[in-house]
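TICKET: design request
STATUS: open
ATTACHED STRUCTURE:
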């Protein structure tokens, strides 16, 4: 684990904190320490700064990991598409992997705002989860039952690559 501390905090204050979780173990003990009020306040302020530095570092790391995850997910989809194209939908079994396919359907809403207007105008507001996101499972059921959304939502056939 990295040392994220910017300032050194008095050991007496640090002893009131669980080193692993960062939680205050004994708040009353913390406030009753025989330390000058100004020094205690300063040390608590420095402690806050250290914790804020940790929070900021974690936020940055979270953003970096989210970006790496998104890139990795994109590579996975591209590689699966390459397998689909390479094998032309045929199964492949080797000692190291088994490649098969599963058919699925997904709703493709081309223009969310246009879809919302159409849905509300035609009494299909039940297909809107929120003002931003259409309720795709409901739309899918309605599309399968024959409801026409005026071309604003269609059922798209997909082939998903499964690697085990």
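STATUS: resolved
RESOLUTION: sequence designed for all positions
ATTACHED SEQUENCE:
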């Amino acid at each position: 684990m990295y040392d994220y501390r910017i300032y050194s905090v008095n050991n007496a204050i640090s002893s009131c904190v669980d080193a692993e979780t960062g939680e205050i173990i004994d708040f009353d003990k913390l406030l009753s320490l025989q330390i000058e009020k100004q020094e205690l306040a300063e040390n608590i302020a420095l402690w806050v700064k250290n914790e804020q530095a940790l929070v900021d570092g974690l936020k940055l790391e979270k953003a970096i990991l989210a970006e790496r995850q998104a890139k990795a997910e994109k590579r996975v989809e591209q590689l699966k598409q390459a397998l689909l194209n390479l094998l032309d939908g045929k199964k492949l079994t080797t000692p190291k992997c088994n490649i098969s396919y599963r058919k699925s359907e997904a709703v493709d809403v081309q223009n969310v705002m246009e879809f919302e207007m159409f849905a509300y105008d035609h009494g299909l507001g039940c297909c809107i989860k929120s003002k931003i996101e259409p309720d795709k499972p409901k739309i899918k059921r309605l599309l399968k039952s024959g409801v026409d959304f005026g071309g604003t939502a269609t059922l798209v056939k997909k082939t998903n690559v499964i690697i085990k």
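CLOSING REMARK: The chain is about 50% helix and 15% strand. Strands lie at 92-93, 98-109, 153-163.
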